[in-house]
Each structure stands twice: as C-alpha cells, then as structure tokens.
Design goal:
Elements: E1 2-8, E2 12-19, E3 22-26, H1 31-40, E4 44-49, H2 55-58, H3 61-68, E5 71-72, E6 83-86, E7 89-95, E8 104-108, E9 111-115, H4 131-142, E10 149-152, H5 157-167, H6 173-180, E11 188-189, H7 190-196, H8 205-213, H9 221-230
Parallel strand pairs: 3-4, 4-5, 9-10
Antiparallel strand pairs: 1-2, 2-3, 6-7, 7-8, 8-9, 10-11
Length: about 230
C-alpha cells in the first residue's frame, strides 16, 4: 500500500493511502491537494476518515465527501482490530485513547498513522485526562516492529528535538534524527522514536535519573510514564 502525506494549516499532516485505483483519506484537510492528486493519478477516493475529532483534523472531511462521492467512516464507531478493506489491501484500526478519548491509529504494511497520539519526537497532550489509557496506547504502539514508519498528525519535530536536547543533552541519537528530518516528508521509524523521544524512553536510565532529580517516583513503569508526562 502506498502513502502520500499532505501538509495543511501550517503544521497539520493528512494522508492518502492507496492501492490499485482506490484511496482512503485520513485527516483530509488539504482538500484541493488531495482531490488534485487523486485526479492526476486516476484514483477513486473511496473512503474518508479521521484519527480523532479535533477540528483541525476533521476540517475538509465533508468537503472531500461532497467533492468525490467517497464514503465517510466515523472514527468513533471503530472497534479495536477492525480492518478497512481497500482494493485488496487492508488497514487495521487500533484504538489509542489518551490525547482524546476517541483517538485511533491506522496500521498498514510497515507504517502507522498515529494522529496526535504519537508525534515524531514527542507525544500529544493528554486532553482526555486519562494518563493510564494514554500509557496503554503508547505501550501498544511501542509493540510494533522498530522498522515501522511513524506518520503523525503534526510536524512538531523542531520543537520536539529542542526539548529532547534540553532534557538529554548527551543523547547523540538526537543529532542523527535531526539530520534525517525532511520538512517535505515528515517521517521517522519506531526505532528512531525509542532512541530519541523522551516520552517513549521512560524506562531508559538517563530518563529515570532525571525523574529522580525532580523528586518524582520511579518504582513502576506507570510512575515513570506519569513523571515524564509532568516535566515541561
């Protein structure tokens, strides 16, 4: 399955997944660009959906449906592990609450579309207030193969790496990550995130030391996760 990334609204990232002649739009705010790409490549936009219900991700959904006749899949009705068929290919839906209660991640081939759950270099804010659910969601994503590519809902890479450097200045993996960053195609691997992203490194010795220096409990993994989510 192929994936095309679209930038809109300054730092929002939306996606088109396609195989054969059929396509699925996820967070399709870049309406004109998506419609143009579909027409140029002789594709049929069959399905439109979202990673969660925040307005900056749902903008464009109705316009895409109206412009193309695509069917709308309400992300709030998905169940964990559900598959979306697309011209012989399939996309698996994983429920990943935390940023919001309705957040989902889409898994296909060797990539994950993570919305605002997992960014390249950081994670989303816990607007749901449920840090335990967020921890379970991050743990779920961490269980995918390290070679899986992470496609997120925003390009926050510059600010995220600046924070990672401030927090862990001796982590040489940050420079390698920064060297691979391409604003025209924002992507990382899960291995990259496990090496650099402080919010996935809650079991790393340097992060545990930082938590202890801040007087935060570290006895359990959840305490470490809660601690790193509290550091600004």
């Amino acid at each position: 399955m192929k994936i095309k990334q679209f930038l809109y609204g300054g730092d929002n990232l939306g996606y088109l997944l396609y195989t054969g002649t059929h396509a699925l739009a996820i967070d399709g705010g870049a309406v004109d660009d998506i419609v143009g790409f579909v027409r140029k490549n002789n594709l049929t936009l069959s399905l439109v959906t979202n990673t969660h219900g925040h307005g900056d991700h749902t903008t464009g959904t109705r316009q895409l449906v109206n412009a193309t006749g695509a069917s709308y899949l309400d992300h709030r009705r998905f169940v964990d592990g559900q598959t979306i068929g697309l011209a012989g290919g399939s996309v698996t839906v994983r429920l990943t609450p935390g940023h919001t209660t309705d957040s989902v991640t889409f898994a296909a081939d060797d990539f994950l579309i993570t919305g605002d759950t997992l960014f390249n270099g950081t994670v989303g804010n816990c607007f749901s207030g449920d840090l335990k659910a967020f921890h379970r969601s991050i743990r779920l994503l961490m269980g995918y193969p390290g070679s899986h590519r992470i496609y997120a809902g925003h390009d926050y890479v510059a600010a995220s790496l600046a924070f990672a450097r401030q927090l862990t200045p001796d982590n040489s993996a940050i420079d390698a990550y920064a060297a691979r960053y391409d604003r025209s195609h924002v992507v990382s691997t899960l291995d990259d995130e496990l090496a650099v992203n402080p919010y996935l490194r809650f079991n790393a010795p340097d992060i545990i030391s930082i938590l202890k220096l801040n007087g935060l409990p570290t006895a359990s993994e959840y305490q470490r996760w809660e601690g790193i989510m509290s550091i600004e």
